[in-house]
Amino acid sequence: MEKKKIIGIPGGITTANGTRRYYINEADVRGIVKAGATPVMIPSEAINDLDYYVNICDGFFFTGGPDVLPVFYGEEPHTNMGFSEIQRDRLEIALVKKALTAGKKLLGICRGMQIINVALGGKLYQDLESEYPVRSKQPLIKHFQAASRTEATHYAKFTANSRLHDLYGDQRLINSHHHQAVSQVADSLKVTAVASDGVIEGLESKDNQQVLAVQWHPEVLVATDEKMQLIFDEFISGLTK
User: Are strands 189-195 and 200-205 parallel, antiparallel or unpaired?
Assistant: First the structure.
């Protein structure tokens, strides 16, 4: 039997029936498993064991979740900032740096794209609705959709000669479920997808194939657009290259 690739996924933290629990959303797990790999959850308490995880995992998947604490990119919290998990932020920022130094590849979705960007020196809009029109001088489309997350609501346009363009061509309808977004792109990353209003929808590494990250949620959109699985398939297949 061929050995499957192992993908480390930092776990979120929730409270259920008075008990704090780690979790990974079912759709995130499904995307990795369907692509032929084995997911392994990394809890925040394992922050001192990251070298071990970097050694045993072939790649890392940073998923959606709460807001990134702005202290990690040198800002004070905006009044419209949402819930954050400082333990998860600390673990993921440290893991991004260690994994990339070790030559491992990363996939990021929504918050995952944001935390990768922050870990590499970038910044975020803490609240798109109040900050983006003022700072960008252009109107904003709706990025926190009222429709089901399984439905696509606006287009993303993809940059030529990018991994996302190779998968989807010039543009594709995507879903949108976020109030934060990348504002200042880290020096080692490049923008490879944008919405019609200019909000960044995709980032990739400038000089190699280590980072692939998107702002939308392909893991749930695959329910109505089966080609959204291609992001997971491309990530896993690329681990052998």
Answer: antiparallel
**Is 217 among the catalytic positions?**
yes
Q: DSSP labels for 79-93? A: TT---B-HHHHHHHH
Query: For residue 189, what are its two tokens?
Result: 């990353």
Distance CA 235, CA 226 (A): 16
CB 130 within 8 A of CB 104: no
CB atoms within 10 A of CB 90: 14
Q: Among this protein's residues, is 110 annotated catalytic?
A: yes
- Stretches where the chain sits below pLDDT 50 are none
| 57 assigned to active site | no
- Residues β-bridged to residue 205: 189
- Positive or negative torsion for Cα 138, 144, 147, 153: positive
CA distance 165 to 184: 22
pLDDT score recorded for residue 241? 59
Q: Residue 77's CB: how many other CB atoms inside 10 A?
A: 13
Task: Pick the catalytic residue from 57, 92, 110, 154.
Answer: 110
